[in-house]
UniProtKB/TrEMBL annotation:
Residues 4-240 form the Carbohydrate kinase FGGY N-terminal domain. SUPFAM superfamilies: Actin-like ATPase domain (SSF53067). InterPro entries: ATPase_NBD (IPR043129), FGGY_C (IPR018485), FGGY_Carb_Kinase (IPR050406), FGGY_N (IPR018484), Rhamnulokinase (IPR013449). Belongs to the FGGY kinase family. Coiled coil: none annotated. It comes from the Bacteria. This is Rhamnulokinase. Residues 250-439 form the Carbohydrate kinase FGGY C-terminal domain. One of its GO terms (molecular function) is ATP binding.
């Protein structure tokens, strides 16, 4: 029996989970959980990469009996390595508002629709392409010194193995990868005047192995643990838990909501661009077609704001009990509005301003804002479902909900009712489980993705709503 260690990194917390198969059962043990916050330095937003790397190093040293390690993270963010192999600065957070100027730089060089056609990615200010253009404009010295751009999971892979690679699923979030050709877009690098040599060797999940004996961290070199590039993008990793069916949508519901389906080829028509849908890659270069929407981020931000005002912690069950009893909100928020994804948002103030500017009324009770956020999320899911159905000429009668939001019975029931679909909710730890599944597959502890998925389902809570 081999044990594997998955690092599943979200925008607010990181988990280390050991997984293995024993007596035909899927087993896991959480060995690390760490909250982390975006750092504000002179008006710019960075991840606390040193703290993240230190915690990962400590966790590996505490679990030297594992045979393989995998890392998945959120998309779009990266670090830059110089020719000597040094990280030039801590990675910026995608919530840094300076990236809006990178988007303006791109517009001056290239029509946005042409950029979309050459990448297939939803046009969002957070995209790697805009981050890179912003860096070139504001931190030209760092840009000039850079030898390789490493996406967040690849940066940690490099730290643990000394190898510079780019895993395909995480690169498919950059806005610089041609999803139709499934390769780096030479045209975009040329037209946007970016250094093509920054791109490392692109590999598929599971194609390569590194080892801690070659780590950049001295303490890990005495170990000999394989490090495998799993699906580096947490969404792609999570969706290994979903059995793709013609009449079923997926919904990965966490800080972000991602709702869509799998398709044979990237969709890059004018209509797809105008609806602001996206294409990304999953296991074995499968194309995912969906939309990124601000998800539970807004609810979590409002919850923290209200807790501070009330001077107490608010259990999620208390929120659920209130929302269950309250009527559906009449005036709704546009979850696509960029203001609702900002790091320093004053949530109640911005929600009130949005409602009043759109002819709505402000909720009278504090907890009614939770109902409003849930209902606004569900309405956006409904809109996206209709857009995807129209573009693909398909009718979706089922939806498989994964991630932390799948724990919410009230949210799942609202989705089933509003979207007129049967909802399957779970597993909840889907990103980590997808990571572990690929590691176990590489270690020959499971025979196939399907076999491993069945074992995980049997060991997980999965609920159905109609």
């Amino acid at each position: 029996m081999k044990k594997v260690l998955a690092f599943d990194m979200g925008a607010t917390s990181i988990r280390g989970i050991v997984g293995y198969v024993e007596n035909g059962q899927f087993c896991t043990k959480e060995v690390m959980r760490m909250s982390h916050k975006i750092q504000n330095k002179e008006g710019r937003l960075y991840w606390d990469f040193d703290a993240i790397a230190k915690k990962i190093e400590e966790t590996i040293l505490e679990n030297p009996d594992v045979s393989a390690i995998g890392i998945d993270t959120w998309g779009v963010d990266f670090g830059l390595i110089d020719k000597e192999g040094n990280l030039l600065e801590a990675p910026h957070s995608y919530r840094d508002e300076k990236f809006a100027e990178g988007r303006e730089e791109a517009r001056a060089l290239l029509d946005e629709f042409e950029l979309f056609q050459n990448s297939g990615n939803q046009i969002m200010t957070i995209n790697t392409v805009y981050q890179l253009l912003s860096l070139k404009k504001f931190d030209g010295e760092i840009y000039d010194k850079a030898d390789k751009i490493l996406m967040m999971p690849d940066l940690l892979f490099y730290l643990l193995t000394g190898e510079k690679i780019g895993e395909e699923s995480i690169w498919s979030t950059t806005g610089l990868y041609d999803l139709s050709k499934k390769q780096v877009s030479e045209q975009l690098f040329e037209k946007l005047k970016l250094k093509r040599e920054l791109v490392p060797e692109i590999v598929r999940a599971g194609e390569r192995k590194g080892n801690t004996k070659n780590s950049k961290l001295e303490s890990l070199r005495s170990l000999s643990i394989d490090v495998i590039p799993v699906l580096g993008h947490d969404t792609a990793s999570a969706l290994l838990m979903v059995e793709q069916e013609k009449d079923s949508l997926f919904l990965s519901c966490g800080t972000w909501s991602l709702i869509g389906t799998s398709v044979e080829d990237a969709k890059v028509s004018r209509e797809v661009y105008e609806k602001n849908l996206t294409n990304e890659l999953s296991y074995k270069s499968e194309t995912l077609f969906f939309k990124n929407i601000t998800g539970l981020y807004l609810l979590e931000k409002y919850k923290a704001e209200l807790e501070e005002r009330l001077g107490r912690k608010i259990p999620f069950q208390e929120i659920t009990d209130f929302v269950k009893k309250e009527a559906e909100s009449k005036a709704l928020l546009d979850m696509d509005a960029e203001v609702f994804g900002r790091e320093g948002i004053a949530v109640k103030k911005e929600i009130d301003a949005f409602l009043l500017s759109h002819g709505g009324t402000v909720p009278k009770e504090d907890f009614s804002y939770f109902t409003l956020i849930y209902d606004s999320m569900v309405e956006k899911y409904r809109e996206v479902k209709e857009d995807i159905e129209h573009i693909l000429g398909r009718n979706f009668t089922k939806l498989h909900m994964i991630g932390g939001g799948a724990r919410s019975e009230v949210l799942a029931k609202k989705i089933a009712k509003k979207l007129k679909v049967k909802v399957k909710a779970g597993p909840y730890e889907s990103s980590a489980f997808g990571n572990i599944l690929l590691l176990l597959l590489q270690e020959k502890e499971v025979g196939s993705i399907g076999e491993g998925r069945k074992l995980i389902y049997a060991a997980s809570e999965v609920k159905d709503y109609s």
